[in-house]
């Protein structure tokens, strides 16, 4: 059973940084594509970033390019999202996604 547990969210001022974590289990981590998806209040889900764990290729939505970095630690079965230069419009619940499964999410709130 795929299990994903996110953490690292919180309240930060505009321009600040946060690092999100996603602890994964129940599947072969190193041969997977993993993603971060976010959902702001009153809006639909938005894909943020994807990484191919094996090959290392990563992809980002235009609005976060240059500010967010996705990475993974195979030894720890953990996915990361380093978020810098945060903006109020980045406020959302952030979810880790793998094999069609979402975690429970972690709240990120950026104050202006």
How many strand segments? 11
Enumerate the spans where pLDDT stays under 50 for 5 or more consecutive residues: none
Helix content: under 10%
Helical region count?
0
Give the ordered list of helices and strands.
Answer: EEEEEEEEEEE
Shape: globular
Radius of gyration: 13 Å
Structural class: mainly beta
How much beta, percentage-wise?
Answer: over 45%
- How far the N terminus sits from the C terminus, by CA atoms, comes to 40 Å
Q: The biggest beta sheet, please?
A: 7 strands, mixed
Oligomer category: single chain
> Could you tell me the mean pLDDT?
96
Defining key terms:
mainly beta, single chain, 112 residues, 4-stranded antiparallel beta sheet
Can you put this structure into words, describing what you see?
It is a single chain. This protein has strands spanning 3-7, 10-13, 18-25, 33-39, 46-52, 58-60, 68-73, 78-83, 92-98, 101-102, 106-111. With 112 residues, the protein is mostly beta strands. Strands 2, 4, 5, 6, 9, 10 and 11 form a seven-stranded mixed sheet that branches. Strand 7 and strand 8 (78-83) form a beta hairpin. The N and C termini lie far apart (40 Å).
Fold topology:
Elements: E1 3-7, E2 10-13, E3 18-25, E4 33-39, E5 46-52, E6 58-60, E7 68-73, E8 78-83, E9 92-98, E10 101-102, E11 106-111
């Amino acid at each position: 059973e795929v299990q994903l547990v996110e953490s690292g969210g919180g309240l930060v001022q505009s321009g600040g940084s946060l690092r999100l974590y996603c602890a994964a289990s129940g599947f072969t981590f190193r041969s997977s594509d993993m993603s971060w998806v976010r959902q702001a209040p009153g809006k639909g889900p938005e894909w943020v970033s994807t990484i191919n764990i094996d090959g290392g290729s990563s992809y980002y939505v235009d609005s976060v390019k240059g500010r967010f970095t996705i990475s993974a630690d195979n030894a720890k079965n953990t996915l990361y999202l380093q978020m810098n230069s945060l903006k109020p419009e980045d406020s959302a619940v952030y979810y880790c996604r793998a094999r069609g499964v979402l975690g429970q999410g972690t709240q990120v709130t950026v104050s202006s």
